[in-house]
UniProtKB/TrEMBL annotation:
Species, as recorded: Pontibacter akesuensis
Gene3D superfamilies: Aldolase class I, nicotinate phosphoribosyltransferase
Gene Ontology CC, one term: cytosol
Protein name stated in the entry: Nicotinate phosphoribosyltransferase
One of the GO biological process terms: NAD+ biosynthetic process via the salvage pathway
EC annotation from Swiss-Prot or TrEMBL: 6.3.4.21
Described function: Catalyzes the first step in the biosynthesis of NAD from nicotinic acid, the ATP-dependent synthesis of beta-nicotinate D-ribonucleotide from nicotinate and 5-phospho-D-ribose 1-phosphate.
Enzyme class: ligase
InterPro entries registered for this protein in UniProt: Aldolase_TIM, N/Namide_PRibTrfase, NAPRTase_C, NAPRTase_N, Nic_PRibTrfase-Fam, Nic_PRibTrfase_pncB, Nicotinate_pribotase-like_C
Limits of the Nicotinate/nicotinamide phosphoribosyltransferase domain: 164-346
Glycosyltransferase among keywords: yes
Length: 493
């Protein structure tokens, strides 16, 4: 497993302090075993887009499988002090943690699945203490990888089928940022990575060219190209902009001609600066005139979906895109606002009580119940998603209500095909889900995007996909909001 190969010690303390203080509070109050339901979801698509690609489940599964407080973990917790220099946690609680075993049910959306605001990507049902304890690591893993997978999908869409190579490790947010992002970028749409460790751990194809320093290390550009071509006669891509780009292209062509009798294959040239449209057009002319019609033109230099689209519209002759900083860091939106909210808890009598988090902003008011998502489809197209409460019956006439505007509703035609998005991952702490290969996840992402209307996939002002609350769930939520607000005094309103 990749994470355990990188980080040899326990990851159980990869969480916020308040998760442990709440756990201690639940334990002290006899609530630790109370059954509860939490949902992980986001409120708004990243990048002002029309869809989001779910990712990170495999790493989340691995984390949960390894969830155990070691002696070293407990020793550290024992060292923590309160404001009066008293032990923060009593010894009996640390002993409880030492023997804690994960026993929750977890349901989740498979990686590569398209998801929409308010839909649970992960649902956790189990003892309150355990379900609360895993909030931070789940958000850490799912938020970041979902963000990067979505960015990669947008970039791949912009290339209209060209190859995309993830070049971003040197600009990534740390070691794990580089690795988890390389994996997420690949499942989202990238075709390869320059990151060798990611290639080794995740079986991602690796690609690369050479740096400007290679050219600078030789007495001339031609000498540098010839030496590189001799070393890699079947895989050479020459970086041509160290001194003068078009002169560099000419030098590359001359070297390729010189090496051809020895079986040299001229793979491509790379442009890393300047006017990429003009330079690629001129380079294509020079290459074609020299008979190198199949030689690729690779481009890098702060690329993202917007710049790639612009270059395509201008007629740039680029067919391989090396995308680094702006994909690996999700440069224009470096965080997904995923949240993890309590939605139901059993009372002392063992009956379910629904819970919501109230807010003056409706978008921040959570949904109650044990939620599932039903996706409707027809003739290879996704039509709509309905979020519903599994603990309550659904009317025969299925109707969606927009989460933020109750006047916007959609009636589902009887007989419309559908599928449930959340699938069982853990049952009572035991893994019951067969993790797919990364290659199959990547294919799933591609298939998912093909079933989404192009108006929803566009970058600017995308059409809104119909994703709403089941009618009874919406009414239940409104009733709970009114009840909670009616308990306020006049001065609090």
């Amino acid at each position: 497993m990749a994470l355990q190969q990188i980080y040899r010690t326990s990851l159980t303390l990869l969480t916020d302090l308040y998760q442990l203080t709440m756990a201690y509070g639940y334990w002290k109050n006899g609530m630790s075993e109370r059954e509860a339901v939490f949902h992980l979801y986001f409120r708004k698509h990243p990048f002002e887009g029309g869809y989001t690609v779910a990712a990170g489940l495999e790493h989340a599964v691995e984390y949960l499988q390894q969830l155990k407080f070691t002696e070293e973990d407990c020793s550290y917790l024992r060292s923590l002090k309160g404001s009066q220099n008293q032990p923060l946690f009593e010894e009996a609680f640390l002993d409880y943690l030492r023997h804690l075993e994960f026993t929750c049910d977890v349901d989740a959306v498979p990686e590569g699945t398209l998801v929409f605001p308010s839909e649970p990507l992960v649902r956790v049902r189990g003892p309150l203490l355990q379900a609360q304890l895993i909030e931070t690591p789940l958000l850490n893993i799912i938020n970041f990888e979902t963000l990067i997978a979505t960015k990669a999908a947008r970039i791949k869409e912009a290339t209209k089928g060209d190859q995309v190579i993830e070049f971003g490790m040197r600009r990534a947010q740390g070691i794990d940022g580089a690795l988890s992002a390389a994996r997420a970028a690949y499942l989202g749409g990238a075709d390869a990575t320059s990151n060798l460790l990611a290639g080794q751990l995740y079986n991602i194809p690796v690609r690369g060219t050479h740096a400007h320093s290679w050219v600078q290390a030789f007495d001339s550009e031609a000498e540098a190209f010839e030496a590189y071509g001799a070393a890699f006669p079947k895989d050479s891509v020459f970086l041509v902009d160290t001194y003068d780009t078009l002169e560099g292209v000419k030098q590359a062509i001359e070297v390729a001609k010189k090496l051809q009798p020895r079986g040299f294959v001229f793979g491509g040239i790379r442009l890393d600066s300047g006017d990429l449209t003009y330079l690629s057009q001129q380079a294509r002319i020079l290459l074609d005139e020299a008979g190198f019609n199949s030689t690729s033109i690779v481009a890098s230099n702060d690329l993202d979906e917007h710049l790639i689209t612009h270059l395509k519209q201008e007629g740039a002759q680029i067919n391989v895109w090396g995308v680094g900083t702006k994909m690996i860091t999700a440069y224009d939106q470096p965080a997904l606002g995923g949240v993890y909210k309590l939605a139901a808890i059993k009372n002392k009598a063992g009956e379910w009580e629904y819970k919501i988090k109230l807010s003056e902003q409706l978008v921040k008011t959570s949904n109650p119940g044990m939620l599932q998502v039903r996706r409707y489809f027809s003739q290879g197209r996704y039509l709509a998603d309905m979020i519903y409460n599994e603990l309550e019956p659904i009317p025969e006439q299925e109707q969606l209500v927009h989460p933020l505007d109750s006047t916007r509703r959609k009636i589902i035609e009887p007989g419309t095909k559908s599928k449930e998005l959340l699938v069982p991952i853990f049952r009572e702490g035991t893994l019951v889900y067969e993790l797919p290969s990364l290659a199959s996840i990547k294919m799933h992402t591609k298939q998912e995007l093909s079933q989404l209307h192009e108006s929803i996939r566009r970058y600017v002002n995308p059409h809104n996909y119909p994703a709403g609350l089941e009618e009874n769930l919406h009414q239940q939520k409104m009733d709970m909001i009114l009840k909670l607000r009616s308990t306020k005094s006049v001065g609090e309103v």
